[in-house]
């Protein structure tokens, strides 16, 4: 919005729906200023042609419109896939929105159930464990940027690894690799151990399974 002339009150001289976006309106002031409003903000602000508004009222409308824009951007991002609070906040701030307004919108969406870090973490961890067969180290590394509270993450990981025990996951990885490389020697054993480490497993978890499958006999 362009800077208005120094008048105590600003008069609305015209309001018209935008040609390309019927859910938005263009408002013209007698100062020559022109600004757009979403339909929700326009209706809630109860604006009409000939109305006189103060700069304080105009500023309040701008803030309301900014919040509506952030909320719409957030809902579009959430329509593609579930996101954590931290990820959604980061994406919105990257769009140059005010961090204070972003935080306000994020809090509102969380209260309404659009964002739920516990549900997000459960889906995220189950996917990495069930489909990628990742161990705890790798899962923690991948989810780190989402800033999930430690108490929530540990509870979820315990539940998921109870559902998909590490022993079975490691065994399935070893079985798959054994079908490709049947020879068990020192060189192949090192490759297998390195592979399991990259998958995120601790030695204490993989050692019993390696011994059970004969990979430590070579």
Task: Walk me through the structure.
The protein has 218 residues and is α+β, with helices and mostly antiparallel strands. 60% of the residues lie in helices and 11% in strands. It is built from 10 helices and 4 strands; from the N terminus they run E-E-E-H-E-H-H-H-H-H-H-H-H-H. The protein has helices at residues 39-45, 55-80, 85-94, 99-111, 117-130, 136-143, 150-163, 166-180, 186-198, 203-212; strands at 9-17, 24-29, 34-38, 52-54. A 4-stranded antiparallel sheet has the order 3-2-1-4. The protein starts with 8 loop residues before the first strand and ends in a 6-residue tail after the last helix.
Treating each run of at least 4 consecutive H or I residues as one helix, how many helices? 10
Q: Specify the biggest β-sheet.
A: 4 strands, antiparallel
Going by helix content, strand content and strand pairing, the class is alpha+beta
Going across the biggest sheet, name each strand in turn: 3-2-1-4
What portion of residues is helical?
55-70%
Low-confidence region ranges: 1-5
């Amino acid at each position: 919005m362009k800077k208005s002339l120094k008048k105590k009150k600003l008069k609305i001289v015209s309001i018209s729906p935008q040609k390309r976006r019927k859910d938005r309106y263009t408002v013209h002031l007698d100062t020559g200023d022109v600004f757009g409003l979403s339909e929700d903000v326009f209706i809630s602000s109860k604006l009409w042609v000939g109305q006189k508004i103060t700069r304080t009222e105009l500023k309040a409308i701008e803030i309301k419109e900014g919040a509506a824009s952030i909320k719409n951007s957030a809902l579009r991002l959430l329509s593609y896939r579930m996101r954590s609070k931290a990820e959604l906040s980061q994406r919105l701030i990257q769009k140059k929105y005010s961090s204070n307004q972003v935080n306000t919108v994020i809090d509102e969406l969380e209260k309404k159930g659009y964002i739920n870090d516990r549900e997000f973490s459960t889906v995220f961890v189950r996917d990495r464990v069930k489909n990628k067969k990742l161990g705890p180290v790798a899962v923690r590394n991948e989810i780190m940027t989402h800033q999930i509270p430690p108490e929530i993450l540990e509870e979820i990981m315990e539940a998921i690894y109870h559902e998909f025990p590490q022993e079975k996951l490691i065994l399935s990885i070893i079985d798959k690799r054994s079908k490709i490389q049947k020879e068990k020697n020192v060189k192949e054993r090192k490759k297998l151990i390195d592979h399991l480490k990259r998958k995120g497993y601790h030695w204490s978890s993989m050692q019993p399974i390696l011994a059970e499958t004969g990979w430590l006999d070579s």
